[in-house]
Amino acid sequence: MDSPANSQKTVSDDEEIDYSIKPEFYDSDLDVKDELWMVKKRDGRTSDAVLSCPACFTTVCLECQRHEQYVTQYRAVFVVNCKVDENRVLQHNSTPPSIVGKRTRDSEKQEAGSADGERLNPVVCSTCSTEIGVFDSEEIYHFSNVIPSEP
Ligand SMILES: [Zn+2]
């Protein structure tokens, strides 16, 4: 009438649980997060254009956004075949007067206020050294002398 079988059963259950643990889920989770970050960085949009050097036609940027007001200007975070000239510093205020003059007072104030004292470095094509844009202190490239084409 004595039945000590209960304690034996418990031990074998514990062993089965140990073998079924698989911590592999965490890695695939990281991949998804990385992809979401990329989409967020581009505001959920794909590239507006592919940009090329106007002198040698080397591709300099595959993912960029067109400027809302100056349609010949593009900004980008990831570039190719470009060099930042860190020996030269440009003043943000050196915008050509012809462009500033056409702007309304409001947008002119906004641009000048936020850009006060900002340091910009020229960006040149690494193939032919033609100046194609500037690199700002927030590590964003602004291309103004490039040839855009369909992405
Ligand atoms: Zn070039």
List the defining traits of the structure above:
single chain; alpha+beta; seven-stranded antiparallel beta sheet; three-stranded antiparallel beta sheet; 32% helix; binds zinc ion
Polypeptide structure, described:
This protein has 151 residues and is α+β, with helices and mostly antiparallel strands. The chain has 4 helices and 10 strands; from the N terminus they run ααββββββααββββ. It has helices at 5-19, 25-41, 97-102, 105-114, and strands at 50-52, 59-61, 65-66, 74-76, 82-84, 90-91, 119-125, 131-135, 141-143, 147-149. Strands 3, 4, 5, 6, 7, 8 and 9 form a 7-stranded antiparallel sheet that branches. It has a 3-stranded antiparallel sheet with strand order 2-1-10, with no helix packed on it. The longest helix is centred in the first third of the chain and has 17 residues, at 25-41. The chain starts with a helix and ends with a strand.
* Structural class assignment: alpha+beta
Give start-end ranges of low-pLDDT stretches.
Answer: 94-115
Topology order in helix (H) and strand (E) letters: HHEEEEEEHHEEEE
Describe the largest sheet: 7 strands, antiparallel
User: What best-fitting shape do the alpha-carbon axes yield?
Assistant: globular
Q: What's the quaternary structure here?
A: single chain
Number of strands: 10
Evaluate the radius of gyration: 28 Å
Summed up, the helix count is 4
Give the bound compounds.
zinc ion
Q: Please report the distance between the alpha carbons of the first and last residues.
A: 82 Å
Mean of residue pLDDT? 74
CATH topology of the largest domain: Metal Binding Protein, Guanine Nucleotide Exchange Factor, Chain A
What is the level 1 CATH name of the largest domain? Answer: Mainly Beta
CATH architecture of the largest domain: Beta Complex
**Helix coverage percent:** 25-40%
Give the percentage of residues in beta strands: 15-25%
